[in-house]
Design brief:
The complex is a heterodimer of chains A (486) and B (405).
Chain A lengths: L5 H10 L5 H7 L4 H9 L32 H14 L3 H13 L4 H8 L1 H9 L11 H7 L5 H10 L1 H6 L13 H8 L10 H10 L3 E5 L12 E5 L9 E2 L11 E2 L8 H13 L1 H16 L7 H13 L4 H9 L2 H4 L11 H12 L10 H7 L21 H17 L1 H11 L3 H11 L7 H11 L9 H16 L8
Antiparallel strand pairs in A: 1-2, 3-4
Chain B lengths: L1 E3 L7 H9 L6 E8 L4 H4 E2 L4 H5 L12 E5 L5 E4 L4 H8 L3 E8 L7 H10 L10 H7 L10 E3 L26 E3 L3 H15 L7 H24 L11 H14 L6 E7 L12 H23 L6 E7 L19 E7 L5 E3 L12 E2 L4 E2 L3 E2 H12 L4 H5 L12
Parallel strand pairs in B: 2-9, 2-10, 6-12, 6-15, 7-9
Antiparallel strand pairs in B: 1-8, 3-5, 4-5, 6-11, 10-11, 13-14
The chains are: A mainly alpha (486), B alpha/beta (405).
Chain lengths: 486, 405
Amino acid sequence: MSQLSPQIDHLLRRAGFGASPADVETFRNMSPGAAVAHLVDYEARPDDVDARIGRMDHALVATRDLFSPDTDIEDARQRWMFRMIHTRRPLQEKMALFWHNHFATAYSKLAGDSGATQAAKMLAHKPGTLRGPQGQIELFRQYALGNYRNLLLQVARDPAMVLWLDGKTNTKAKPQENFGREVMELFTVGVGHYTEADVYAAARVFTGWNLRRSDGYRSDDINAYQEFVFNADQHDTDAKTFSFPIYSNSNRTIPARSESEGMQDGVDLITALAQHPETGRRLARKFWQFFISEIHAPDPAFVEGAAAVYRQSGTEIAPVVQYTLTSSWFDHPSMRYARYSWPPEFIVRAVKEVGWQDFSLDKVRAPLANMGMLLFEPPNVGGWALGSNWFSTGTALARTNFAAMLAASQKTSLAAALETTGTTPQAALAAMLERLTPAPFDPGPQQAMLSYLVAGGAWTGSEAQLNTRAAGLARLLVGSSEYQLV
Amino acid sequence: MAAVTLGLAAPPFLSAIAQAQGIRSRSLVVIYLGGGNDSLNTLVSYQDPNYYSRRPTIAVPAGEVLQVGTDAGGRTLGLHPRLEGLHNIFNEGRLALVQRTGYPNSSRSHFEATDHWSTANPQSATGPGWLGRYLDTLLRPVDALAAWNTAGETPHALLSGQTGVPSIPNASTYTYASPNRGSAAAEERAAAQVMAANAAAGRPHLALVNATNRAAIETLDRVAQATTYTPTVTYPNGSFGLALRTVAGAIVRGIGSRVFWVQTSGFDTHAQQGASGGAYGNLMGALGDGLWSFYSDVRNQGLANDTTVIVFSEFGRRISENGSRGTDHGAAGVMMALGGMVRGGLYGTAASLAPGHPTLENSSGDVRYETDFRSVYARLLDQWLGVNSVPILNGDFRAGAPAIF
């Protein structure tokens, strides 16, 4: 198989996006414990991946005029794919992907309201040259392993989220329930741990959490922006009572406050929800499915252990992820290849393993959409349906056809890779399996690939044969069911 | 890079199976409106003064509705003005409007509500879908295209333990590409087919992906047939029009699918909904124009009597508008059925929107259901698809079913 130990291989697929040749060098001599520490402690390395966009020895981006990932959603999508492929902080980008699905916010609704430029900014703006707050995905990168209560507070004030869940129209005259419902149903405790009355009270808590536009705002101005503002005069100042404790003395009522102090209501509710015991458990179950397994139900001992770490650390995510990645469940051999890859994970790993020479990331957009996960466009606020739901006939075709496109683009380097090592069909297959890391093959599929290699004639390793069969074999491997597992 | 579509006819045993499973090849086309369609603005009770007092900015003006007559409760109703196409079908006697469908204690969560409509079980959100359970009753080995899903993911309603349903969001890209051409490409596809045939003993999650890959390869050529169809009408642009056009192609080409699934979203109109126009007007226009094109096309091909379309959503919306000139999640809503054999007309009775009226619930905020949606399902299963609805729906929901056939 690959040149790394099975444990490190598995760790890199789960806590990152797999290993490119450079990653193999980095991790080759690390123990699993050291590798986890290296991944979790990503702040020790600079966040320099964006500066490498445009280098010819990296994957390419395509654009009509100037590459504008802060204001053009297609460029933002390319930048994000570039980051996942080339980052030296894979766990940070992996967590950003996780949070993107958890706080699922869709570009098309924002664009319908505020236009394409502002919508892209709200989701992807990385402050540097343009004015305005950071985009939602930068928030997720900033808080990737951060404090969950603080992340929730930032999300509640995030312009994309405020717009997405109709916060702008949530006023004391007519409370709008969308955010109040989803902050409990989807972002914290989950269905069954709040009542309809709680939803209405939560709506009232967030009345006045609104947006304002920059001076001289025009939606097509790249320096225009929308930012959070608390409109005190829109805030419902009456007391709000919930079915669960808000304060450490078990008090379930947020007191009536003056308008100007009213924003504290939201801080109190978000703090209570972040600290609610069900939130830790729910996050633990999600981390089980994201990091450990989708085919084994979450082990209650893991859920309680991770929730305890979450609680004792004061709602910090880094210790919970650390606990997860160093747990005995994570490293158990039965958990290898026990999860189905998300479309971007599948594409990024394939690119890292097959190669990216002259490969432009704008070509990835249609396959991602056909596989069911166009970045920045979740189907609804509940995020994407995970696990085996990724696999329908249409999405399966999209995956295998992406494999064909990638293999075609890397034909030359794939043929060269087999030139010296592919003296027999068995050796050629073995050489390809050094580079690619599918789940183990049973004899039947193994034989099918060997038969493919000699279907056009006995194996001679000639240039013509390599030019055809190397890419075809790579396609069969990347398009195989075995490669869809992580 | 070449697209490989082998020009072989479907293996004879497959079309024989498709034949054997239906004396006449009837099709059921299920249209799911995602987000919770505002039924009160689809089928408007325009003589109810509370409709206007409770919806000051988003009520459809009385003078603009398309008249559909008076229901059994004596309420005179009209369709949204952008539903001209559906109005045509109604006037031909082939559109059934079933008012106030739903179930007790209906959920106002998109995900839960959709699950209940999918499982046909108000008590449970998990388990196979009602259409999946229908497919499981078909003779084995079942045709790989017994059902045809135009959405990217298999909807819960079509999920079954035993029957896979292909997802074909774009029939013309539903092909097997290759980095090579000619015989090398064909050999590659053959190898992929053998690899996907692996039973993957001991690894059911792998077997599941293999099953999907197998189904994809087996259905490639037959799906291609639907893309060569030239419609007799012009379908609207966009994915909804494309999906309906593809379904029409599959029906006309006799692929043999018994159930088609089409979904369109955007109905979660919490804000700036509009009335005759605006966002809701566009939703109604797209829905009505799409269905009118489909119905006309299928009728022109002489297949209207073999085709039934049903339209549903996971809930209706609240009666009063909210502060954002939109509506929040509600309860009961309208289901529609159309087709050459449908007995068109108004079914059920409109709610009275006066606070305190027994047709309302949740402090008169929502419309109370009158017809259990499972009785509509039962009618479709028993009368249209010709199977026994009782075991499929885990209960007898035939009593009180609207007589739409």
